[in-house]
Amino acid sequence: MKSFFEGIQDLFVNVLFAPLDGLRELELSNWFAANTLNWLFMIIGAVAMVYWMLQLKGFSDRGEEKKDATAHSYIG
């Protein structure tokens, strides 16, 4: 049973976390290159937020949103 858990440890430490070890070593030489993945995720999040806001504005402009007090049960 001990070898089973050591196999799981070996999989995670030596295989699945290897890219993160590479990023940690890259950070010492070039901070911007090491954080490109973070910047990519922030850009994707910003684009998604802008898309969401445009969709909400479109629904509001077309009058498809229920704005009365009975639209949500927790309001009143």
What's the short version?
This protein has 76 residues and is mainly alpha-helical. 76% of the residues lie in helices and 0% in strands. The longest helix has 27 residues, at 36-62.
Number of distinct beta strands: 0
Going by helix content, strand content and strand pairing, the class is mainly alpha
Question: What Rg is obtained from the alpha carbons, in whole angstroms?
Answer: 24 Å
Low-confidence stretches: none
Run of helices and strands: HHHH
Strand content: under 5%
Specify the overall morphology.
elongated
From the N-terminal CA to the C-terminal CA, the straight-line distance is 58 Å
Reported for the largest beta sheet, the result is: none
Helix content: over 70%
Describe this structure in words.
The chain has helices at 2-16, 18-29, 31-34, 36-62. With 76 residues, it is mainly α. The longest helix is centred in the middle third of the chain and has 27 residues, at 36-62. The radius of gyration is 24 Å and the shape is elongated. It starts with a helix and ends in a 14-residue tail after the last helix.
Task: Label this structure with key terms.
76 residues, mainly alpha, 4 helices, 76% helix
SSE topology sketch:
Layout: H1 2-16, H2 18-29, H3 31-34, H4 36-62
